Amino acid sequence: MTSPGLALPVFEVLPELRSALAAHPLVVLQAPPGAGKSTGLPLELLHEPWLAGQGTVMLQPRRVAARAVAARLAEGLGEEVGGTVGSRVRFESRVSNRTRIEVVTEGILTRRLQRDPELAGVGLVILDEFHERSLNADLALALLREVQGALRDDLRVLVMSATLDPALPTRLGAPLVQSAGRAYPVDVRYLPADPAGRVEDQVARAVREALAAHPEGDILAFLPGVREIRGALGALSGVDAAVLPLYGDLPLAEQRRAILPDPGGQCRVVLATSIAETSLTLAGVRVVVDGGLSRTQRFDPGTGLTRLVTTRVTRDGAEQRAGRAGRTAPGTAYRLWSERTHAALPAARPPEIVEADLAPLTLELAGWGAPDPAALAWLDEPPAPRVQSARALLRDLEALDTAGRITPRGSALLELPTHPRLAHLLHDGAALGLGPLAADVAALLEERDPLAAGAGADLTDRVAALRAWRRREGSRGDAGVLERAERLARQWRQALAVRPDDTPPDGFAVGQLVALAYPERLALAREGGGGRFLLAGGQGARLPEGDALAASPALAVAHLDAGTAEGRISLAAPLAPAVLGARAGWQDAVRWDARSGTLVAQRERRVGALVLDTRPLRDLPHAARVEALAGAIRAEGLHLLTFSPDAASLRARVQSLRAWRPEEAHADPPQWPDLSDAALLAGLEDWLGPTLEGVRTREDLGRLPLLPALQALLPWPLPARLDELAPTHLTVPSGSRVRLSYQPDGSPPILAVKLQELFGLTETPSVNGGRTPVLLHLLSPAGRPVQVTQDLRSFWNSSYFEVRKELRGRYPKHPWPDDPWSHAPTRHVKKRL
């Protein structure tokens, strides 16, 4: 199938690849950029015997790449796209009954698998640029492997990438075919130090230098986003070259202009986002200027919000970018950072599945019949906490039932090619009779903001701008963004079978639709106003100062910067009280008010964290009381409880035995319960719960009798054994019963006693069955320690005489015998003669 005169570098491994695909259902191909794996191999494999007249589906991660690759493949056959080679991207299909190769974006393949798991008529699926490890590519691979195992043992899957995790073939159990390619050398140049200032200015300056130093060939410059591309376009005005932008939202004609050589032979400077890193081939590029930044979406599972972040390019991404300069001839790559910084860059970006919002994937899995992701073979399994938060959202959207199974509504949402949030907005918006407005709102939420910074946060103004633009009345918004939004809104109107509405939008209707997409971002104004709101999800949020929506009692928030303390609302709409009220339900609420030190029990009409109304709760369930009080004690600490001396002693005695007898403490089950602070806090409901009846205040907690509750933790016969091994008192030779002071850390218990009461005692008293000598605090007649010892015999033999010499003049009424061994112990003074 090779075209005359065409010999792509990857064709050198065609025999090996053909053999591998004939023998194995899954094969991995590694080929460097420019080898022709995307634009050559699908044609060469079209007539393989194992394909048997079936078609090929090739997955591309981006729309721009999918269109460009399809065009190159069709050109290789001398055809237009839509013949033997077709393409499908969202809302755009160029296929016919003659199509044998379909180049599709990732969501298209997932939709096809959901509708036809056997992939009837498809013999080969190619996953291109797999090194990017996009969420949809990982999902597609997991689904395809299950299809191969259960339904289609004849289906082939070819995983292709320019760079590759060396462990990937082994992890997939697949053979690896490697193509050396034909890359030309690229002279990589670094700056002596990292530059300061805006990246668009740095890139423009480097492009001007490159134009002067490299008169032949085109220049490809990488910037993080559209804003920076526009800044660089302005900074490069007047250069002797065609300066062209390239990003995903460009109209198709402008994308083709950036991709194809200049028809008049003029030098081109293409300012691109990271979409130009991989599949796209820009003929004639000899110089790459890399700004070193990339913009991606990052999901914060703590807030449930996704925000755009600008980060450093990874080392493998920088290699991909530099390689663009060496596809057709030796080239040069200017990296606008230092070599030292390059060594510290991350080696590769993490798989999207470990960082992304998993709501779309979770709904897809439920639609597939695998609500538990562990049922599929993943390269990296979706993180369980993110799956749980995604399920919670999908239950709020009524797309999943409580068991995680897909509902009829969820199946309907899957049919709309967008995030489940916006699918819910469109589906239910149409059911409410708001279909035309839903199409406009969904389109605007997917697009960049058409209004300039400082235009306020009200989404209603954006809808008005779109409708004014549609009426050709002119608009204060960005015409390019509004054009793209209208293109998308038109597609949604077709999907919903509704006509456009160009009347001025109702703000409350806009808010009602936003509430469908973001149920956890319904918001009530806080006391004092000032543009501060509480979201139903529990987070705080604030409008920009002076925003017109600040006076609204309630909002539906669409876009929110998660922030650290309070999020910053960038897009919202007013919410009618009736819409908020329709979502509310009565709940019993029992919680501890730390400021007043009281238990608050009331019925609350709530939407998540938002309380719309309250009523007193008179019959307080005991379990709710225990849960709230236990939570208060854990939050504030055990100091809320008052341990009597006997209760504190019991804890210390038991903890001492746990330290002294570890074989008993760690038996199964343990003989001595753990009465440490941590253990008591962990088990509050069990040991303290029965005593909490009637407790409502901090003072009530302080008066609780804790000794019986602790004693209940010692089942028979432990109380008697505790008294035997760790008695509360010891009887000394004078006949006094002296209290022992135990330490929770297991250090020896202290026996503080007047030394006169121990005359005649030779051995130090002990506890713990004789294993642990007590620590004697020998006291003067005034009760002050004069000696601390665990060796009483040594004290009588030596230190006693020093003590006697020092104290007998001060305490003449007390006995200070020359022979303490034979003198009668006493707690009294000397008898008068």
Automatic annotation (TrEMBL):
Ranges for domain Helicase C-terminal: 198-369
Alphabetical list of SMART domains matching this protein: DEXDc, HA2, HELICc
Classification via InterPro entries: CON_HrpB, DEAD/DEAH_box_helicase_dom, Helicase-assoc_dom, Helicase_ATP-bd, Helicase_C-like, HrpB, HrpB_DEXH, P-loop_NTPase
Enzyme class: hydrolase
Helicase ATP-binding domain residues: 18-167
Region (Disordered) location: 814-833
Top-level taxonomy: Bacteria, Thermotogati, Deinococcota, Deinococci, Deinococcales
Protein name, per record: ATP-dependent helicase HrpB
EC code: 3.6.4.13
Keywords: ATP-binding, Helicase, Hydrolase, Nucleotide-binding
Molecular function terms, GO-annotated: ATP binding; hydrolase activity; nucleic acid binding; RNA helicase activity
Keyword Thylakoid annotated: no
Oxidoreductase among keywords: no
